[in-house]
Specification:
The structure is a homodimer of 638-residue chains.
Chain A (H helix, E strand, L loop, with lengths): L11 H11 L7 E5 L12 E2 L9 E2 L3 E4 L13 E4 L5 E4 L11 E4 L4 E2 L5 E4 L9 E2 L10 E3 L7 H9 L4 E5 L3 E6 L4 E2 L12 E2 L2 H11 L3 E4 L7 H13 L4 E5 L10 H8 L1 E5 L3 E2 L5 E5 L2 E6 L3 H19 L9 E6 L3 E2 L5 E11 L2 E6 L8 H4 L3 E5 L5 E2 L4 E6 L3 H5 L1 E6 L3 H13 L3 E6 L1 H10 L6 E3 L2 E2 L4 E2 L1 H7 L5 E15 L20 E4 L4 H12 L13 E2 L2 H9 L5 E5 H6 L3 E15 L6 H10 L2 H10 L2 E2 L9
Parallel strand pairs in A: 13-16, 13-17, 14-15, 17-21, 19-24, 22-25, 29-30, 35-36, 35-37
Antiparallel strand pairs in A: 1-12, 2-11, 3-10, 4-6, 4-7, 5-9, 8-9, 18-20, 20-21, 22-28, 23-27, 24-25, 24-26, 26-28, 31-38, 32-33, 34-37, 34-38, 34-39
Helix pairs in contact in A: 3-6, 9-16
């Protein structure tokens, strides 16, 4: 096995220029399609009107057509009487052609009709062409309707039809072929049970969806195993097909099974191998038979970011479109984000509006974690020249959702509880609000409240001295703030163990047994405080416990560690054990509260939260999780 | 004919509430679809993960799998040697499962391989689980992936597949039936030549495109004539079909052919008839057999705005989505916009970025002019309680295009010339910039430059005293500014007449003939100044000329007035006559310049303009129009 060597590593802008310069004139051919179906397509040449609109002088109102001159002098004192149906006036409806001898329309509201409906009295004159839509008032035949490279909108369709253009010449949709590769991959559509050690292929579906959104038509080939010949044949088949762009996913880095770069090199030219972005570094930009061929990274977030940076702009350019720029907003950064110099980072962020500011928090970095992208509503780009951003600074975010939706995002930072997911679901069902929770432990949540970086903090911090939950910490950390403390649930904490409790863990003292390997929660979490308190009461020392230094950040992560057999047990809530069909040995019950600055209680979003947690929908869903009580849910403690 | 009476006129918010309250629980049924096809759909219930991801401990890097403990102590001074392929270490690629006895991966870059490839030397330890993606690190089986009512994005598709969900329960697409009505309408797909007095039906296509964008499936019925029985039958057929929503377009006001309200009243209930918005007032919101039935206005802009305000949010709500809010931006208003109190106005605006501010100009008001919507890139809503907005004030705009595209819009305010359309087309073809021209006459353009309300002003203002174009006016009005004056074209001005010049118009004196009816340009336009100068030279008085007081705003509008037979002639450019196959009697040649504040010459957009006007593409296209010379194009006069 060789060292990873990137053949031609480039910064983003340079890589993009090296690539797109080769394909600057690769716009797709044009085709003529019905204007009815043209919304979302791009004009291939200037479009000029064939007919004027209106194509005749038309009544702009319901009323009577007249010669304006016959109405001159009409007033309250000297009303004018018109013979309707004779030569003087004629009933006319909006849109009807104005007969030749008339040059104005009097609105029906301004006419007093005699009983015979044949005489109309008016008390004010009209001027020539009043209430008339003149020929060409909207569109003049021969005039430019749309230039080349114009993205046709729904209203544009109406303009095309009105201007007598039943069809329009547009750019053909670019064709893209996506080739998923990897011996470890399975197609979940054809594989009911995923064999151990195999991975579900998901990149081709997301890249296909991104390509469709960019106006392309997509072919996804079956999964190709990591065998040079098959892949070579498939790549050449794709290049020789109608495809305008070919994407090979993955095999773009330089492991022993990473054939992509060798194949592109053999069949064509590698322009760029490696881009100094993260995620997305192992991107290959190449060319075979004068067609763009991209080797896209295997990790899902890398694959998506690389595709958005290189393939989407190429697909847009092929249709004659400029690159769509994401909407940008300024936000206050809620945490330090260190970054490695020399590489441009795309951090996935959760952003919400607190007071008049947007506040943004980073999600995990891992390129392998697709949920960092599905949970994010914004992206923070940290330049290669930067070593990161500091908490409290103002940063530019690229928005992944409409700004209104980001402003309707309620930030919930602090301890994790499964009931927050129930609340999230109920909010989406019943309101325009989204609950975005990030898990930093109870103490982290309290500090976020202190610094105006969250709307809500979930907390279950026991004060060992008083035996009280949360209030002593609020007194200590939040004395400057007017705080509402509202109980969400009571919940059982205990030992999560394998089904049947094979290692017979019953009490806190069992953690000190030599055969037991424990997994801990991070310091600052309520569960950690609880553990330390129980150890203290039992006279045990952390050093006595194997695995005390191994930390996870959520109850579910603890449960997964137990399920995977890597540890014997961890402290967590019953619902987490239930969720994975594990067993549970109760240790204590604790109170889990929501800490909310009192000033936010007036917000419609918080009002909705408070009303939902006391609903029967909520208590019913909580009961189904097991290990919870809602006996004090919604009670304001402070 | 009766007076127009709106049965139940309501302000927008009240009308919306009256309507949507009736249909609050009308979400569509759910259906299960492949996750591969789910991008853009909306979850019908909470989606939980069926599998964890990774589903096994997996190598996060290419390298060798080891037990971390065997690497402890490795350093530059005491490298550790590992037997690869034996029990100590194993080659592993990214994504492969970590065999049971190992708990870490050493990156291939950090291993010095012996020649036999079987021994690896390392100079630093790894800690347990380093470079390993642990089970459930991304997704834990049973956890909430997405709540109800979640709009599925492309990355979400990857999360669904990765979490073992090959399909997903989503809301069915709402079905909408659109019934175009009107005896005057023709379908341009089936009617090669539009008969005189008939109108091309275009609303159903634009409403259908808007509905598709809102996630609906659309049925458009054939055009129904204004005959009560046919329409009644068709409406009932639609209501009894699978349609979730029925839209009748138009016949929603109260003219003699406006049957819609009567039909809804007869078959069901009219909730709202008339909304105090403009355009969009004659909207009917009704209900038949518990289904929403909308009578939508006939004017295209009214139809679109009414549909966007009432039908699009309904279609979104039926899928469980909140109403999409348009992006908002602040802009400086370049003109006064008076507004009638008591009615909420939706003014179509052109907006561009000048310096650090967005600047916005209103387009025409007419609800019949679809081009006011196709040319607009933003909407200014003027509240019913307001009597308008004043020039220079900051207003909130709803953006119809991405902000980046609006910021790439070059404002060109002033005199109209057809060569600006050529420039517009070349810009779209060769750059990300859009030229948005509004026609206010040469003097209007100069004043816009003075007030920093435009990037470019087109001008051909003759100074009669000196015989010079533009420079005397720049001295007079723009002495505070550093101005670049750049010639665009020379062009012939003359009399636009019917083919064959049947009225034998040859000189300026002919305008004073009794049998000649003239059409003028607005005051402040260069053509008006030219006319007045020529009249003066010929010793003629405006009062001598019949039609001197009738004004049009563009050359093309003058040409259309001649073509329609309403006037004998007007003064304009040869290209306008050519465009409509009219004849042209030359009077003089004039210089048409671009006035650009010198500080903008540095802008990439203006640089592009200056390079394009001196291109052969430009001069060739200009020559084709006729009546132009590019002999001095691109020369900087000032």
């Amino acid at each position: 096995m060789k060292r990873k060597i990137y053949l031609n590593m480039q910064p983003l802008a340079e890589a993009y220029a090296l690539f797109t310069d080769k394909f600057a004139n690769h716009t797709t051919a044009s085709e003529t399609i019905p204007s009815h179906e043209a919304s979302g397509r791009v004009t291939a040449c200037p479009v000029t009107a064939r007919l004027s609109a209106p194509s005749f002088h038309a009544a702009a109102m319901d009323g009577i057509a007249v010669q304006a001159a016959t109405t001159f002098g009409a007033s309250d004192d000297s009303p004018v009487s018109l013979d309707i149906g004779g030569k003087q006036a004629l009933f006319i409806n909006t849109g009807q052609p104005l007969p030749d001898s008339y040059d104005a329309v009097i609105m029906i509201e301004h006419i007093l009709l005699a009983e015979d409906q044949q005489t109309g009295i008016i008390r004010a004159p009209v001027y020539p062409w009043q209430n008339v839509r003149k020929v060409g008032e909207d569109i003049v035949a021969t005039e430019l309707l749309f230039p080349s490279n114009h993205l046709i909108t729904p209203p544009d369709v109406a303009a095309l039809l009105t201007a007598g253009c039943p069809d329009v010449k547009v750019r053909k949709k670019p064709q893209i072929t996506i080739i998923p590769t990897g011996s470890e991959l399975v197609d979940i559509r054809t594989t009911a049970i995923v064999p151990p050690g195999r991975t579900i292929e998901s990149n081709s579906a997301v890249l296909a969806a991104l390509a469709v959104n960019a106006g392309a038509e997509v072919t996804v080939t079956p999964i190709i195993a990591d065998a040079d010949d098959t892949l070579t044949t498939n790549v050449m088949d794709a290049v020789r097909s109608d495809a305008d762009v070919v994407v090979i996913n993955a095999g773009s880095s330089a492991g022993s099974a990473d054939y992509t770069v060798k194949i592109i090199e053999k069949l064509g030219e590698v322009l760029v191998h490696g881009v100094t972005i993260m995620p997305g570094k192992p991107t290959i930009l190449g060319m075979i038979d004068n067609k763009p061929v991209i080797g896209s990274p295997g990790y899902p977030v890398s694959a998506i970011i690389s595709f958005e940076q290189f393939v989407v702009p190429l697909l847009e350019a092929m249709q004659g479109l400029s690159t769509t720029q994401p909407a940008i907003a300024r936000a206050i950064l809620a945490r330090d984000i260190p970054s490695r110099g020399g590489i441009e980072e795309f951090r996935r962020m959760i952003t919400g509006k607190i007071g008049s500011n947007l506040v943004t928090l980073p999600l995990k970095k891992g390129a392998g974690a697709i949920t960092t992208l599905t949970r994010a509503n914004s992206i923070l780009r940290i330049a290669a020249s930067s070593e990161g951003e500091t908490r409290g600074s103002k940063v530019n975010l690229e928005l992944l959702r409409p700004q209104s939706q980001i402003e309707n995002t309620l930030l919930c930072t602090g301890s994790h509880d499964l009931c927050l997911d129930i609340l999230h679901d109920l909010l989406k069902k019943n309101s325009p609000y989204t609950l975005a929770s990030t898990h930093v432990g109870s103490l982290g949540g309290i500090l976020a409240v202190r610094d105006t970086m969250t709307h809500i903090a979930g907390s279950h911090l026991l004060d060992p001295a008083s035996g009280e939950y949360n209030t002593p910490y609020i007194t200590r950390y939040l004395q400057q703030k007017n705080i509402a403390l509202i109980t969400l649930v009571h919940r059982e904490q205990g030992f999560i163990v394998l089904p049947g409790n094979p290692e017979n863990i019953q009490t806190i003292s069992d953690l000190a047994r030599e055969d037991i390997c424990f997994i801990n929660r991070q310091s600052g979490s309520g569960t950690r405080v609880l553990l330390d308190n129980e150890l203290d009461k039992a006279g045990l020392d952390p050093d006595d416990i194997s695995g005390y230094d191994q930390e996870e950040y959520t109850h579910m992560a603890v449960a997964v560690a137990v399920l995977s057999g890597k540890v014997s047990t961890g402290l967590g809530i019953r619902a987490a054990a239930n969720a994975l069909n594990l067993d549970f040995v109760p240790l204590t019950e604790e109170r889990y509260d929501l800490i909310i600055p009192a000033e936010y209680l007036e917000l419609a979003s918080i009002q909705t939260v408070l009303s939902l947690i006391t609903s029967s929908q909520f208590s019913k869903a909580v009961a189904e999780k097991g290990g919870y009580s809602t006996r004090e849910t919604g009670i304001r403690v402070l």
